[in-house]
Amino acid sequence: MSQLSMTINGQQVQVTEGMTILEASREAGIYIPTLCHNENLESYGSCRICVVEIGEGERKKIVASCLYNVSEGLVVETETEKINNYRRIILNLLMHRWDKIPVELLERYGAKRDDRFVDNMTYCILCGLCVRFCREIKGANVLGFIGRGTIRQVVIFPNQAAKYCANSCPHEMECLDYCPTGVISSSYYGSRPADGQPLPHAHPICINEDINILEILERVGNV
Amino acid sequence: MMARLTSVSALEVLIKDILSRRDPQKTKVSVCSGTGCRAYDSEKVIDSLKAQLLHDGLNEKVEVVTTGCHGFCELGPVMVIYPDHTSYFKIKTEDVGDIISETLAQGKLVDRLLYVDQEGNVQAKEDDIPFYKYQNRVVFGNNQLIDPENIEDYLALDGYQALATCLGSLSPEEVLEIVKKANLRGRGGGGFPAGQKWEATRNAPGDVKYVIVNADEGDPGAYMDRSILEGNPHSVLEGMLIGAYAIGAHKGFIYIRQEYPLAVEHLNRAIEQMLELGLLGENILGTGFNFEISVHRGAGAFVSGESSALMSSIEGKVGEPRPKYIRTSISGVHGCPSDLNNVETWANVPVIINKGVDWFTSIGTEGSKGTKIFSLVGKVNNTGLVEVPMGMSLQDIIFKIGGGIPNGKKFKAVQTGGPSGGVIPEEMLDLPVDFDALDKVGSMMGSGGMIVMDEDTCMVDVAKYFLEFLADESCGKCVPCREGITQMLHILKMVCAGEGQPGDLELLEEVAAMTKDCSLCALGQSAPNPVLSSLRYFHAEYEAHVNEKCCPAHVCKDLITYHIDPAKCKGCGKCLRNCPVNAISGEKKEPHDIDLEKCTKCDTCFLVCPPKFRAVTKLSGNETLPVSDV
After folding, report:
1. How far away is chain B from the Cα of A213, in angstroms, using its nearest Cα?
2. Taking a C-beta distance cutoff of 8 angstroms, is the pair B382, B411 a contact?
3. Which superfamily does B25-82+86-124 belong to?
4. B interface mutation test: which of A84, A150, A153 has the most B CBs within 10 A?
5. Which CATH architecture has domain B557-620?
6. Is B510 within 8 Å of A86 when comparing Cβ atoms?
7. CATH assignment of B459-547?
8. What is the structure's pLDDT at A222?
9. Nearest C-alpha of chain A: how many angstroms from B319?
10. How close A10 gets to chain B, by Cα (Å)?
11. How much is the pTM?
């Protein structure tokens, strides 16, 4: 892999070919927020909060830094007014699914609840980290998505769980560590979120309302 | 069973043989049996026609051809009688007797089946009918001459000549050069030059390459790709083979919607016939070129029309767009270079080869060459599929070909490009329709949907409709598209319900801008277009909803009330009898009254009130009943 030279926020940096803008920036100590990224997993590009501006003048465009590969002479801006504004809007939108987004992140971009938006407080931001961890690291496919568009949700497939959970994660459900909002752990333990918020009607970790992950795990002897 | 063709000259011999068996002066009756006309029972008309011809002993003299869509769906079932080009419309089985005894036996016209325009002028010949006269049906014109299940009909019209030319006497590079020079741009949405895509796929590293037909047409109201596949499947298949030859691909996929059963049937039949004739498989026409096709049926997800999502679906995965910044021409199906073009694009290829680059580029505008098929639907007199040269004005398409707006209503806007497109107002009717002009005004060509709207259409309601569609059809993967559409739709619903607040329109614009710039795929990036374009051209209508709680078009139920104008009501009692909730009261011959508490705004009274009275009025916002002159 050869070395390339590029510019991030006006700063010349040497990076390795094949890196993403996100990797290059982090290596250079430049902050880019992410919500669906994990360095152990393949980039997924769903939260879009890592968007940056590339190019100059008329040819500027916005790309997801977790997916866009570096190239010689690439010019990147990570915190332009436009980008920061978009991040604010993305956070505003996500606050209506998950009202415990880390305060530092909200403050950095000036995000706040917008009363004109409708709440869908599932505590699941559909980042897919649990699903991808289960698939990519464990090769188990116990978790997956169902539904598309605005009714997409994460579900556990009971047959797959019965088949794989005990062997793939013998000690504890490791997917829990990947969930940024804690919604999986709360459903795993069958408890409510720490602040006493009721769980949403559509339990994100249940294939249907009658089957709880706890019951499945009891059935497979994993608890 | 036809014999396998083992050389280019064998194809020529076969075509000569087919032509020698055909008499161009023979009476031929072409009856549309596309999906639209079938809904009007055209199959029964055809059966009855065939049976009576047999009964009358005319079956040898008159040939009946069951064809795909002719385009003039408004007046189906449609029939054209050759060689005179006599056109009959709205044919019922009862008309068959007269058609035979008058026209086919004596050459006389059946007047009641002829086309009559809005001014009352009668036209007997297809070419004189305005709907057809102003079209240039380069791709679509053969539909009415071909029985889609009979490959001989296609061969008789220069079918597979272009393929023979390419395989027999042109190198793949030469074919590529022709398509590049023709500047054939993708008819499916983006308008990306097909030649460039072919070249990128050809030059991409890898031995295995694929060509794909995108027949996942999903825009509401759009059905041109469906009608090409139903009516002339070989034109698409021939184009695909030529593309494969130029690119160096030996396998192709056709990704077609499960909801298009007739198209699937005709496509499969066409593929069987090609295999029989040796136009598919190993060593096609003895030239050493091998090609196979598999038909992949889509399960009805709109997003699967997006190129990378379509390819995921072909691989058996969920049809979700791939997030990577890498073109499918480099890494597509199974990671192999894959060229994807839509149905209409492929169908243009044989025409370009046969008629030449100069001919093709003489049609259209500077940046958009050739023709484009539009599905002209909505509030327009002549609903149907129209193929026009690029650059024709919206005015000409809607008023000259489309015959204007029904019921004397006023034109308000036209929506092009489906859910990803935008609305275009009256002031821009002289806009020449091509890829770049539509882009510039905030809409897009898309696959060619053209929905005409009249003065009774609420633009906020239209934006809401398209977002509802997109809320269902977004794959839901990325935040800007999923959450952006959710909240934009929520705000629009509130605005339509009279719960709009100051700042709502600015908020809509803000979310729309983010969704446009940050979404993962083209569906999300274009999803805000219906909102942005209607905000741009119909801002006052949005403001009326928010500030005055008024829907000027009287569409948004929450913002309107129904009243009976006492000056106009003659007390005929029609509304009273038809009101399903008994909200109307009044004595006979006395003005009636609507109890607004009981009224469910079902619109029945408005519809049943006799036109000579027009006493039922919808009011919105601060509107009041007109002061009586009496």
Report:
1. 23
2. no
3. Glutaredoxin (3.40.30.10)
4. A150
5. 2-Layer Sandwich (3.30)
6. no
7. 1.20.1440.230
8. 43
9. 10
10. 23
11. 0.92
CB-based contact, A118 to chain B, within 8 Å:
yes
Is it the case that residue A41 has pLDDT exceeding 50? yes
Q: In the prediction, which pLDDT does A178 show?
A: 86
Q: Is the pLDDT of residue B345 over 50?
A: yes
* The token pair that represents B437 in the structure block: 């002009």
Structural domain B371-454, CATH architecture: Roll (3.10)
Rg (CA), chain A: 20
For domain A3-80, is the CATH number 3.40.50.1820?
A: no
Chain A neighbors of B318, CB-CB under 8 A: 145
This complex has an ipTM of 0.90
Largest Cα–Cα distance in chain A? 60
Q: B5 pLDDT exceeds 60? A: yes
Is B474's CB within 8 Å of A96's CB?
no
Any B CB within 8 A of A80 CB: no
Q: Is the pLDDT of residue A207 over 50?
A: no
* pLDDT (0 to 100) of residue A172: 66
- Map out the domains of chain B as residue ranges: 25-82+86-124, 154-360, 371-454, 459-547, 557-620
Residue B175 — pLDDT band, cuts 50, 70, 90? very high
Residues of chain B with pLDDT > 70, as a percent, come to 99
Q: At CB < 8 A and 24+ separation, what contacts does B394-401 make?
A: B394/B424, B394/B428, B394/B429, B394/B430, B394/B431, B394/B433, B395/B429, B395/B430, B396/B134, B397/B433, B397/B450, B398/B429, B398/B450, B398/B452, B400/B130, B400/B134, B401/B130, B401/B131, B401/B134, B401/B135, B401/B376
Q: Are B446 and B418 in contact (CB under 8 A)?
A: yes
Give ranges for CATH 3.10.20.740 in chain A.
3-80
B478 → closest Cβ in A46, A96, A114: A46
| Whether the Cβ atoms of residue B215 and residue B347 lie closer than 8 Å to each other | no
B-chain residue closest to A93, CA distance: B483
CATH topology for B154-360 is Rossmann fold (3.40.50)
> Any CB–CB contact under 8 A between A42 and chain B?
no
Q: Where is average pLDDT lowest: A82-96, A120-134, B75-89, B500-514?
A: A120-134
Q: How many A-B residue pairs are in contact by the CB < 8 A criterion?
A: 108
Q: Show residues of chain A in contact with B522, CB under 8 Å.
A: none
